[in-house]
Specification:
The structure holds two protein chains of two kinds. By secondary structure, chain A is mainly α. Chain A has seven helices and no strands. By secondary structure, chain B is mainly alpha-helical. Chain B has six helices and no strands. The chains are: A mainly alpha, B mainly alpha.
Chain lengths: 130, 137
């Protein structure tokens, strides 16, 4: 056994691949992957998403500089409504929620074994509390 | 072998199989040298009463100052004193060793989560991290 193997890292990476393979067989994960593909490939829904992001940024800048106008709030709401009305956005968000629910369950299993919040540690923004 | 049982694997079986691979992954992480070093460093830290006591006091002060800051009423001198205390604390061998072990563990967990995220196309860490976002130590 090489040094690299004896520290367990390659075993962890091997088990990670097995986990990914098992995940990819789950219907809710497959639905998410397919929905995400349709969502990302559709120019119309992507345009609606970009519009929400653009209007939300304008809103935030206005809020920070104290120049926020009433109509800007409405513009964000309208852009969001147009986005959420799109069938591919709805399909994507629902599929993502369903996939997330299962992924959270797997995180619970791993975290319980370790006594450490796996996803929480892996997903933490570095230095956010320092 | 039961003839009445359908040959098609159903959703519950697939999910149970995936949860089992998650368990195996969790155990592999638990057996890795990085995780063991983290556990050891954590035990040493907890056993070091002096550092543990100062660390708890530091965290309490930190929360008080954050709260004050969110009201816009933080005292810069107190913030400076807190930074100073952290510099002193983090230079102490048990805490320094713990922080280093924690960093190495976080790097491994990030690598694992990164592979899952890339393969599935969903940010595993962000999906599973507590919704509150910011957290501490």
């Amino acid at each position: 056994m090489s040094l690299l193997e004896s520290n367990g890292r390659s075993a962890v990476l091997g088990r990670t691949r097995e986990f990914v393979t098992a995940l990819k067989a789950i219907p809710s994960i497959q639905r998410f992957v397919a929905a995400q593909h349709r969502f990302q490939a559709d120019p119309e829904v992507q345009r609606l998403l970009a519009d929400v992001q653009h209007k939300a940024e304008t809103f935030q800048r206005g809020q920070q500089s104290g120049t926020l106008r009433e109509e800007q709030i409405q513009q964000v709401r309208d852009a969001q409504a147009r986005f959420y009305d799109h069938p591919l956005a709805q399909e994507f968000l629902q599929a993502r929620d369903a996939a997330a629910t299962f992924l959270q369950e797997t995180n619970g299993v791993i975290s319980e074994i370790l006594g450490v919040d796996f996803g929480g540690r892996a997903g933490r923004v570095r230095g956010c509390c320092e | 072998m039961s003839a009445s049982k359908p040959a098609v694997v159903d959703r519950a079986d697939l999910e149970a199989a995936a949860l089992e691979t998650a368990r195996v992954l969790g155990r592999a992480i638990g057996e890795s040298s990085v995780f063991r070093a983290f556990e050891g460093a954590q035990e040493t830290l907890v056993a070091d009463e002096e550092v543990s006591r100062r660390l708890r006091a530091y965290q309490t002060r930190q929360q008080e100052i954050w709260l004050a800051r969110s009201w816009g009423g933080a005292d810069p001198l107190q913030e400076q004193a807190l930074d100073e205390e952290w510099r002193t604390l983090s230079a102490m061998p048990t805490l320094r060793a713990y922080l280093r072990a924690q960093e190495e563990l976080t790097a491994l967990l990030r690598e694992v989560a990164g592979i899952i995220s890339q393969e599935i196309g969903i940010d595993y860490g962000a999906t599973c991290a507590p919704a509150s976002g910011c957290c501490c130590c």
